[in-house]
Amino acid sequence: MKTNFVYTAALSALLTGAALATPAQAAEYKTILIHGFQADQLNRPNSTNVELEGEEYWSSFWINHADERIDWPSYERLQGKIATDYIWPKLKAFAENGTCNPGCVFVTHSTGDLVARYILDNQATWLENADLQPLNIVATFDLAGAGGGSELADTAINAATSGGVVGELTRQAVEAWLGSMPEEFGIMWDLKVNNARQVAQYPSDNAPRLRFVADASDYYGLTSGFLPGNDDGVVSTHSSCGASTKGDFGSCSTSVAINGQLASQDDAVTSFMPYHYPLLMSAEYSHGNLPDAGYQGKVTAARTQFNAGYKTISYNTYEETTGSWFWKKTYRYVSESNSQSFSQLILNSL
Fold first, then answer.
1. Is the dihedral of CA 89, 200, 127, 55 positive or negative?
2. Are strands 68-70 and 300-301 parallel, antiparallel or unpaired?
3. Which residue, 41, 297, 322, 325, has most beta carbons within 10 Å?
4. Dist CA 319 CA 60 (whole Å)
C-alpha cells in the first residue's frame, strides 16, 4: 500500500536525485527505499514479480530520487524468508560494495517502517558475523509508518480465521483495504499491533527515525472505525507518530493539530519509541498517496527545526487565522506546502 530548508553543504546535492538505473553520484549520502505491505502479493508472485512490483510501488515519485531499494514479498514473514532471502542478500551486497560507507538514508513507507526497525536492530551483528563492515545508516525517513502495527491486520485475521459470521461493516472494511477476505496472511501476522510492537523494541542502532504523518483516508471512512484515534485509513497515529504505546492519539505534537491548528492537544502522543521524531503532518494526505507525486493540500510541522545528528532540518512556516472572537483559529503551515507535494517536501528534507 501503499519551506525553506537549511542544508549542510555535503547533502544539498541530493536534491537533484537520480533514477535507480543511474545512481545519484553527486550525493554523498545514498538513499535506499523500503516499500510497504502489498495486498496483491498474498497470491504469491515469483521473485521476479516481487522486484518488479517493488519498482512499481515507488514509480509515482521516489523511484527517480533513490540509489537502491530493498524489495520483499508480503506473503512471507518478517523474521523468516523476508529476512533470509530478501533483506540479507541486499545488506550483504551493500556492505561488499561500500554503498553506505559515506552514509545511507532509508526512506520507508507503511510496513517498510517495521522492516527498517528489524534491519537497524540486526544488520551490524549479521554483517560482522560475515566478516563485513556494518552499514552506516544515518537516518530513516518513515512515511505513514506502520511500525506500531495496524488494527486492520488484527481485524482481517480475526475475521478470516474466526469460523463465524463476519459482520457487514467488518467485511466492508477488510475488503476496502485488501480487495477481498484473505486466505493467507504473510506479514499481516507481524502487522498485528501486539506482534509489531514486540519486533526490535530497542534497536541497537540509534539512527534517528523521522516521521511523516497523514490523516485522510482512501476508503471513505470504512476503515477508520477499526483504528483508534486519528488515522490515515490504514494506520493510527500511535503507529505513524511512533508512540511508545498503542492508544487513541490525535496528534504527534502537544501544540499543533495534524491539520495545522495551533492549540493545546490534550490527546497528543507524549512518549515515543526510541529515536522516533515526528516532523511533518497533514490532514490532506492519506496512507496511500503520501509517497506519491500528487499534490493534495497543506502540511504542518510538528517541529520547525530538528537536529538529526548528521544534519539540521528546518522549515519556514507561516500562519493563517480564520474567524474572530470565540471562533478564531490560527493554523501553521510549511511555506512550500502551498504548491509542493508531501513527498517533495520530504525529499527537500533529505
1. positive
2. unpaired
3. 41
4. 30
Asked if the model's pLDDT at residue 26 lies above 70, the reply is no
Confidence at residue 192, expressed as pLDDT on a 0 to 100 scale = 98
Sign of CA dihedral 95, 1, 290, 248: negative
pTM of this structure: 0.91
Q: Confirm if 18 and 65 have CB atoms less than 8 A apart.
A: yes
| Residue with grid cell 472572537, as numbered in its chain | 325
282, 240 Cβ separation under 8 angstroms: no
**Rg over CA atoms, the chain:** 19
Q: What is the per-residue pLDDT across 286-296, written as a single tens digit (0 to 9) for each?
A: 999 999 999 99
pLDDT tens digits for range 128-173: 999 999 999 999 999 999 999 999 999 999 999 987 778 999 999 9
CA 29/CA 207 separation, integer angstroms:
14
pLDDT in tens, 46-90: 777 899 999 999 999 999 999 999 999 999 999 999 999 999 999
Distance, in Å, from the CA atom of 32 to the CA atom of 138, rounded to the nearest integer, reads 12
SS (H, E, C) 158-191: HHHHCCCCCCHHHHHHHHHHHCCCCCCCCCHHHH
CA distances from 68 to 19, 51, 82 (A): 9, 12, 17
pLDDT given at position 1: 54
Angle between helices 88-97 and 112-129 (to 10 degrees): 60
The predicted-structure confidence for 339-348, as pLDDT tens digits, reads as follows: 999 999 999 9
Burial profile 175-195: b = 16 or more Cβ within 10 angstroms, e = fewer: ebbbeeebeebbbbebbbbeb
Q: How far apart, in whole angstroms, are the C-alpha atoms of residue 209 and residue 12?
A: 20
